[in-house]
Amino acid sequence: MNLNKKALLIVSFGVSNQESRAATLDRYEEEVKAAFPNYDFFKAYSSGRVIANLKKQNIIIDTPKQALNKMAEGDYDEVIVQPFGLICGETFEQLEKFVNRYETKIRSIKLLNPMLHPAVDYEKVATFVTKEVEGQQADDAVVFVGHGTYTDGQQAYVDLAAAFEKSDVNAFMGTIKNDLTIEKVSEKLQASGIKNIQLRPFLLTSGYHVLEDIEDLWAKGLEAKGYHVQVDSKALGEFPGVRQYFIDQIHAEMTG
Questions:
Q1: Are 98 and 70 within 8 A, CB to CB?
Q2: Is residue 92 classed exposed, middle or buried when 0-12, 13-18 and 19+ CB atoms within 10 A define those classes?
């Protein structure tokens, strides 16, 4: 057995849309390969629906369990698992359970955190995310809209919303699910006196939620409240700085 075999596993939710996948997940995965040439590369999607959709197009993607099985059977000595995700929600918790099962099968296996987690510096995240936004005017507000969750993971969005309020730009956080509603965001906007809004997804990829929830429901909902809304559907995963944030996380684990 080769005791020096090392691997990286990147786990994404996945996205069926080819254009979005190429601009986000595929690009990030290629950057990871280039940044860590001494590690064998594995990928997995956590969404069974996305995996099934891609299989119809003859694109085969492993589940996290399948990828971990391959590494265990391949006698890997060191494995780093990185969720290319945003919060410690249901998807992350399920991945954590999978990884824990392989602690007796792989000598060293480490699971990294998603972007937002209890120990992260939310003000630092708020600063670098808003710096990635292009074309913001001084009298505009940027409204980010995330997926949201009814689990404890929702607190990450709430904490980021508070960090945005402390930042030097007029940025606000909303979620499709749970308590950061259009009404709550509108209350914050009214207090600021801002009427021009740049609406953006706080999602790593652009898929169904961008089209149906952000470009339609959120845009129309804010327009109905008297705001001038400009939608920019560019997903977070398209920004080099966001992808670099995750790569830096891997570097930190390797050198820490």
A1: no
A2: buried
